[in-house]
Design goal:
Elements lengths: L13 E4 L6 H11 L7 E4 L10 H13 L3 E4 L3 H10 L3 H18 L10 H8 L4 E3 L3 E4 L10 H4 L2 H6 L14 E4 L6 H7 L4 E3 L1 E2 L11 E6 L4 E6 L9
Parallel strand pairs: 1-2, 2-3, 5-6, 6-7
Antiparallel strand pairs: 1-9, 4-5, 8-9, 9-10
Helix pairs in contact: 1-2, 3-4
Length: 240
């Protein structure tokens, strides 16, 4: 990773990265080798940093390190982080659902026995994550927006922003901007095809290595509207 205070170029680049799901080494390779992120760049992340992969704690450590060392990272909240926060707050139903979706392995990766024992610095970091962010060309959210509401960006419920799987998008109601989401796993060809639409989907199931069409971490170059793909280079995924 470049640590220089002054960027190597005057152009400010912007990227969005899909669901990481505990694949810390793959995220590092994306940021440091594929994107070669500079401190004057902006990196959006679409949520789901934890669960299923081998190093959820490492992913959060890395994101916090980037932020603390002056990189402009703008992570969104995902439904897996929401389940962690609810579990850490003592919600037993959320804990059971979270454990079913990979949360038990995440607790083990933190070296604790229960979600209530996860160190506060991680919970504080996650609590501050926004659910939606907008630029002049894009609207970014983890799962989706409710286009039956008068103002999808401001009126969509928290639940829909984190769990929605609908594909309908009315770009006119987003001011002509393109919606960018993660959450729902798509093949590389489906993701590539989405570049030509008003809804770009970036989740390729990075944590899984079971099929050739999946198992990649995918980033969007938001300026050139092109994909950057890094194959999962982490150790074997750990199912929930």
């Amino acid at each position: 990773m470049s640590s220089s205070t002054e960027p190597s170029a005057t152009i400010r680049r912007s990227y969005a990265v899909g669901d990481v799901h505990g694949c810390c080494r793959t995220l590092e390779k994306m940021v440091e080798e594929a994107l070669r992120l500079e401190k004057n760049d902006t990196l959006y992340l679409l949520g789901d940093y934890i669960d299923r992969g081998p190093d959820s704690k490492g992913v959060l450590d890395y994101l916090m390190q980037l932020s603390e060392t002056g990189f402009d990272i703008r992570p969104l909240l995902g439904n897996h982080e929401e389940m962690l926060l609810q579990s850490a707050a003592g919600d037993d139903m959320s804990r059971r659902i979270w454990y079913f979706n990979g949360g038990f392995k995440t607790v083990q990766q933190f070296g604790v026995d229960a979600p209530t024992e996860i160190p506060p610095r991680y919970l504080d970091f996650l609590c501050k994550l926004p659910r939606v962010l907008s630029t002049d060309r894009y609207v970014l959210v983890h799962a989706g927006l409710d286009f039956s509401t008068p103002d999808p960006i401001n009126d969509t419920s928290r639940n829909d922003m984190l769990w929605e799987r609908g594909t309908f998008v009315d770009t006119g109601r987003l001011g002509g901007r393109t919606l960018v989401t993660g959450h729902t796993t798509n093949s590389l060809s489906e993701i590539e095809n989405s570049l030509m639409t008003g809804h770009i989907m970036l989740d390729n199931g990075c944590w899984t290595k079971s099929e050739t069409r999946f198992g990649n971490l995918v980033a969007l170059d938001m300026d050139a509207r092109r994909l950057i793909v890094v194959k999962n280079c982490d150790s074997a995924a750990q199912p929930g």
